[in-house]
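User: Here's a chain of 431 residues. Predict its fold as tokens.
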Amino acid sequence: MSHHLNGASELFANDEYMAAHGVLFRRDLGPRLVGRLKPDHIINDGALRDLIRLGLEHIDADGEVNPLFVRDDLVSRGHLAANVADQSLKSVAEFSAFPDAHVFTAVRRLIDRYNRAELEKKLTEAATLDVSNDQMAAHLEEVAANLRRSSVVKTSTLADTMTTDPADESGEVITTGVDWFDAILPNGGLSPTDKIGIAAPPGAGKSALALQVCISTLIQHPHWIAVWALGEMAPKTLRNRGLQCVSGLTMGVLRRPLAALSPLQEQRKRDAVATLREIGQRLVIVPGPLTPSRIEAAIVNVGARLLIVDYLQLVRPDGESATRRDAVDECVRSLTTIAQRNECASLWLSSSPRTAHGSTDPFAWFKESTEIGHAADLCYVLHPPDDEADADRPDVVPVRVRCVKARHGAQLSATVMFDRSVQQFTRGGNG
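Assistant: Prediction complete.
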């Protein structure tokens, strides 16, 4: 595929190309997009907007579309130069590896982005109006009504699920590239709406595991975008951990100038920096304070397929809650809805209370939450050795990744080795 995301403003490019492919090249899908997708929903690329506009017109008039006729029509009308039309159509044709369900999701994200932008414009206009308080209140109420309409829950029917064939949906499960982790996922990889809870005591490696999975997934799948809800860690700390994980070098080595490194160390550092610069454009950080609405806004704005919440107890609900437990549970419910609504695989990291040790309730490891046991599809608890003082812990320790819930398959666990010095988990132990 010839498209590379070069910055936050271009992160919707893949969604726009997928939408164009659905209109121009999917005979069964294009008619379903008439009346749903509009040319105005395409913001980044004017040529794509013209292709989609004319493609929808052809479908509406004739019931089908020939992309070459659309190309010729645009050129003859003087809307596009021949070379621009040819390149755009070629680029759209390359987006053929996505299931129909992904195209529908891309279109929905484009519509949501457009609606949000229109509402923001109206709010900006309201701030500049020279009107009375009553007129301002009426204007804001109109804006609020539009927001409620744009946010209304969209109903669906069983027939809507028939837009794809089960035989074609295996592509919706993607491997993370972390072989031992894929091996304990029931589907052998991540599904679009997977909600995975990972609990561990401090220092056990829950953030390191999530970062390794995230980096590997972005390397394996260049069309995926991730959002990291970073509640506590500094972004540069996340970067440093990423460099350790990718390079296999300790921070002590990474902090040395290149001239002080061995040839192998220098190459590893250069390769790790290059890797993080490339995938870093597809890893969007949401800093604290974290709320479900801020997290979802980031997912929608960039078209994310993967969400990491680091960590649950640092997310605050959008509304008021009577107790701290109620607040965490409300956030879990909101994040569940967000994952399903946006078809975004999610890793929810959770701190663990000291009282979890010795408890017969496996969900006691998820601090301050009774909801996660119901909401998550998969729940894992990381068990490091508990017979060592923090100061005496070796760099490499065995960690038991124990599955305590698997909604859609067997509960598969693994024993792996966690190297703190390079923030990597590798296969080890007896499984």
